[in-house]
């Protein structure tokens, strides 16, 4: 059955009027100019004084409070411009505002650069004295961060030059990437009629029951990416080279080192997590071998990865998705339901896919005292419900972290994925209980496994690809599209092993992934968050309601503590391979649960049918043969 896309006008868009009324709101210019003036006065007042060895805690506290207010002030126009632009990147007025805000933001930053540099230059004795003073307790974590960053800062003159030119260097190429990919239109033939789809609409067909439509969607995606490969590869090469220079100047040993520093994680932690995940790739191999048999195919192609094991007879209306998410959150905690309801009631979510809109989904926090916003491209698929839950998990995290000042507001990326993934799990559990048909329950479990693979093993494969990509650019110079395609295919194929063949269409798919361009090495945060959530959810199952305060405290911490320190309060040692293996073991347990009744059980066919809830074994036999072209006994024997 062909995927149907909900009509965009029937879906709600967000209301940004509590930031500004429109792109030409005069208050935007007023706020920007005021922020510039405040930043200039801040520099006049504190430059040359913050780095004095004898600075008092009172003086530093006053400076930090002033600095924090400036960052809040600057954030509002920047957030509005970015959010407004994301829903229509073809609108020249929105693009112009985005660029204007970035350029004025650079002016502001040049007045503030001295502050962190002077903090970082404080003698260790002064730092220790200030950190012990209870007056500065709320800024303790931020001060420790600045001390750790000291060796990576350049001189004030050099930092100023880099900031003033940023909008015509890396930021410009990132904006170009967004504009190119958002303007792409994908030719797709549906029922004899050629249509032009957005990327989000096209990718929805990756989950269609019709294999021909899945294949056609893969071919359409590859064709349009190939048409734009030259400019997208040039963007990638330019950003890779810029990062190479930056890493050299800032004394970062490895391409991913700056991400580890900003995430406040030791390289060893991520290396251990990566090694454990790679050792468990066989989970992916086994699952897709099982899925191939369930689909009755001789071999799986890359466009079969998300083939549904159940036919979704109709799209899930957005209102139904909303009800499901709210009820799932409410069952976990009334507090969680109370936090999520305003997102719907006050139009903090932009739902429909539309031309020019950025693909994918995100949640954007503004300031601790302002609510976040969520962007979706909702097409009515079951996974869109999970995406809604995921982004609202981020939103709840932001709301709870709002008790912190701006410098401690945003959690580091790996912890930022905790609430989002936990929220998905809550909805999955609710869906499992609502489905009475055993076939539907099994199919949902398989979908959950596939989502987990995408979050853990695929992201780790992408992380390894990124490391190889940066290393190759530094050793070989500018890379051709074909060279990068080859690295991409190799990294992804290793995850799937012999269970699935990545065809030539797949080699182009790295070209549209925004994280690789906009936030290098972001992706390991997804694996970190998923495996952490598996541990958290297991703890919740053990402790019940007594777990809730601990969970909300974890989220409320925002970015006020480093991950290792924060998670140690729950008894988690993220430096140990055993911790990460525990998460992989839970994934493997779900795989075994899916395989048990279908392949390795000793029960007879009649017993299996009864266990699955079929009144007559013949009904199970017919259903199984329809799905796999094999009888249950033939299917079992194929594993021997």
What layout of secondary structure does this protein have?
Layout: H1 26-46, H2 57-86, H3 92-120, H4 124-132, H5 140-149, H6 156-165, H7 170-183, E1 186-190, E2 193-197, H8 199-203, H9 211-227, H10 229-249, H11 257-262, H12 267-279, H13 281-295, H14 318-332, H15 334-345, E3 349-350, E4 362-364, E5 373-375, H16 382-400, H17 413-434, H18 438-455, H19 457-476, H20 481-496, H21 514-518, H22 524-543, H23 548-556, H24 563-568, H25 577-600, H26 605-611, H27 617-628, H28 632-637
Parallel strand pairs: 3-5
Antiparallel strand pairs: 1-2, 4-5
Helix pairs in contact: 1-2, 1-3, 2-3, 3-5, 3-6, 7-10, 10-19, 12-25, 13-25, 14-15, 14-16, 14-17, 15-16, 16-17, 17-18, 17-22, 18-19, 18-25, 19-20, 19-22, 22-25, 26-27
């Amino acid at each position: 059955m062909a995927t149907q896309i909900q009509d965009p006008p029937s879906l709600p868009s967000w209301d940004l009027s509590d930031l500004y009324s429109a792109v030409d709101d005069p208050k935007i210019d007023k706020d920007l100019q005021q922020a510039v003036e405040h930043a200039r006065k801040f520099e006049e007042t504190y430059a040359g004084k913050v780095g004095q060895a004898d600075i008092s805690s009172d003086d530093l506290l006053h400076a930090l409070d002033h600095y924090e207010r400036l960052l809040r002030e600057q954030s509002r126009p920047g957030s509005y411009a970015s959010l407004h632009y994301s829903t229509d990147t073809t609108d020249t007025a929105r693009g112009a505002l985005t660029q204007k805000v970035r350029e004025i933001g650079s002016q502001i930053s040049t007045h503030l650069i001295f502050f962190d540099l002077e903090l970082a230059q404080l003698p260790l004795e002064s730092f220790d004295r200030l950190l012990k003073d209870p007056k500065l307790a709320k800024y303790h974590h931020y001060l420790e961060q600045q001390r750790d960053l000291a060796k990576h800062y350049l001189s004030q003159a050099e930092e100023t030059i880099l900031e003033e030119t940023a909008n015509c260097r890396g930021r410009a190429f990132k904006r170009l990437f967004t504009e190119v990919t958002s303007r792409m239109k994908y030719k797709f033939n549906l029922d004899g009629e050629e249509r032009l789809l957005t990327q989000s609409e096209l990718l929805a067909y990756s989950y269609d029951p019709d294999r021909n439509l899945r294949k056609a969607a893969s071919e359409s995606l590859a064709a349009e990416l190939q048409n734009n490969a030259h400019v997208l590869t040039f963007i990638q090469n330019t950003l890779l080279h810029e990062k190479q220079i930056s890493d050299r100047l800032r004394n970062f040993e490895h391409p991913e080192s700056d991400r580890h520093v900003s995430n406040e994680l030791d390289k060893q932690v991520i290396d251990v997590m990566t090694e454990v995940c790679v050792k468990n790739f066989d989970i992916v191999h086994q699952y897709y071998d099982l899925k191939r048999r369930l689909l009755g195919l001789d071999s799986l192609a890359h466009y079969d990865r998300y083939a549904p094991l159940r036919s979704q007879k109709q799209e899930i209306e957005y209102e139904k998705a909303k009800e499901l998410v709210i009820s799932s959150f409410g069952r976990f905690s009334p507090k969680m339901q109370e936090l999520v309801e305003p997102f719907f009631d006050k139009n903090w979510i932009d739902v429909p896919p539309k031309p020019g809109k950025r693909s994918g989904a995100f949640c954007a926090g503004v300031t601790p005292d302002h609510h976040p916003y969520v962007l979706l491209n909702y097409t009515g698929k079951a996974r869109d419900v999970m995406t809604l839950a995921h982004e609202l998990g981020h939103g709840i995290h932001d709301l709870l972290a709002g008790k912190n000042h701006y410098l401690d507001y945003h959690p580091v990326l790996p912890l930022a994925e905790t609430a989002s993934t936990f929220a998905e799990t809550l909805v999955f559990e609710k869906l499992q209980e609502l489905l009475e048909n055993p076939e539907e329950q099994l199919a949902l479990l398989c979908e959950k496994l596939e989502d987990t693979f995408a979050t853990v093993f695929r992201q780790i494969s992408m992380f390894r690809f990124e490391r190889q990509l940066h290393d190759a650019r530094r050793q070989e110079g500018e890379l051709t599209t074909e060279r990068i395609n080859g690295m991409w295919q190799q990294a992804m194929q290793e995850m799937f092993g012999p269970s699935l063949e990545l065809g030539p269409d797949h080699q182009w798919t790295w070209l549209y992934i925004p994280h690789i361009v906009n936030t290098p090495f972001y992706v390991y945060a997804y694996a970190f968050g998923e495996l952490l959530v598996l541990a958290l959810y297991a703890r919740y199952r053990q402790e019940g309601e007594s777990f809730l305060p601990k969970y909300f405290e974890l989220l409320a911490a925002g970015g006020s503590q480093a991950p290792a320190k924060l998670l140690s309060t729950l008894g988690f040692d993220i430096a140990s391979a055993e911790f990460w293996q525990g998460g992989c073991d839970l994934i493997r347990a779900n795989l075994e649960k899916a395989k048990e009744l279908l392949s390795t059980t000793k029960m007879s066919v009649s017993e299996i049918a009864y266990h699955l809830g079929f009144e007559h074994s013949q009904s199970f036999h017919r259903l199984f043969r329809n799905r796999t072209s094999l009888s249950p006994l033939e299917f079992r024997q194929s594993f021997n």
